Amino acid sequence: MSLSRGAPPGYNTALHRRSRTPFLGGKEGTVSVDPNAKANMQALRDNPYPGRGIVIGQTPDARHYVQVYWIMGRSENSRNRVFVCEGDTVRTAPYDPSRAKDPSLIIYNCARVVDRCHIVSNGNQTDTVFGALRAEGTFEEALFECRAEPDVPNYTARIAGLVDLDDRHHVYKLSIVKLHRHDPDHCVRQVFCYEAGMPGLGHCIHTYAGDGNPLPYFEGEPYVVALPNDLDKTAELFWGILNAENKISVMAKFIDAESGQSEVRIINKHGGT
Predict the structure, then answer these.
(1) Nearest-5° angle of CA 157, CA 6, CA 135?
(2) How is the chain split into domains, by residue range?
(3) pLDDT at residue 33, as a whole number
(4) Topology (CATH level 3) of domain 15-268
(5) Which residues make beta-bridge pairs with 90?
(6) Which residues, other chains included, contact 178 with Cβ-Cβ below 8 Å and sequence gap of 6+?
(7) DSSP collapsed to 3 states, 165-226
């Protein structure tokens, strides 16, 4: 039974239909040479502060779906974090508990699993989506409970993603919840739904377009990036792309397209992998 049904009226839903264009890469562990993906990854490399980001896609051999999640930080409190994997859950945790301050927006579960649904997000909406799916609700319904983070003046966007191996219509989804012109009275929710994976490519969304005051929101649809066949190389790829000063942690997750079993790799600036 699919626990993720269609989006309700009013959502911006981008449907990706099954492509007839052959994958341009092919060797084990290599990434796609898709020119758009290459340009997008260079733009991400040149971006000093995309904030927190999610990538969802498919390996070149189409055997696995991929989730990547990263965190960045500028303040001492934001930088005092690591990713910790416990069973099916990945969460943030203080690297040095003695230096931890307000944990409300920086300590949370960032990846959880319900049956054959794999959730990833940049905040406590991970648990909101988890609860909705477990109660046979939908990803979209859960997002109605979410608003942008209350970190004035940035009002950081809440981003989330879902891989649902039992959804016959959309194998994965990405979403962003933000404010129109940083106005707390005008919340905008967008969901992007992808009918099928594209071997060797993923879709990327992040909280900020770049640095600024207030930090400007990510705009438009998630953009394509390249993905390797190898889990370790996937984690290393995005760790190597992100700004060296501001990156904190990267998680890469491979989900077997048939069995739903998953494996995770983590790279932390503090404490290694």
Answers:
(1) 80
(2) 15-268
(3) 66
(4) Glutamine Phosphoribosylpyrophosphate, subunit 1, domain 1 (3.60.20)
(5) 85, 111
(6) 148, 155, 157, 158, 187, 188, 217, 218
(7) CCCCCCCEEEEEEEEHHHCCCCEEEEEEEECCCCECEEEEEECECCCCCCCCECCCCCEEEE
Identity of the amino acid at 25: G
CB 126 within 8 A of CB 153: no
Strand, helix or coil for residue 92: strand
CA distance 40 to 46: 10
pLDDT at 272: 63
End-to-end CA distance of the chain: give it in Å, rounded: 36
Which residues are paired to 81 by β-bridges?
94
Are 54 and 122 within 8 A, CB to CB?
yes
Q: What share of the chain is helix, strand, coil (3-state, %, to 5)?
A: 20, 35, 50
Residue 243: left if φ>0, alpha if ψ -120 to 50, beta else—which one? beta
Q: State the pLDDT at residue 24.
A: 36
pLDDT confidence of residue 103: 85
Please name the residue that has the structure tokens 């406590």. 124
Residue 82 contacts residue 95 (beta carbons within 8 Å): yes
User: What distances in angstroms separate CA 242 from CA 8, 53, 70, 71, 269, one per listed residue?
Assistant: 35, 10, 9, 10, 12
pLDDT mean by block of 10 residues, the chain; 273 residues: 34 35 40 82 98 98 98 92 97 92 90 98 98 97 96 97 96 98 97 97 98 96 98 98 97 98 97 68
How far apart are alpha carbons 241 and 195 in whole angstroms? 28
Q: How do 187-194 and 15-16 pair as beta strands?
A: parallel
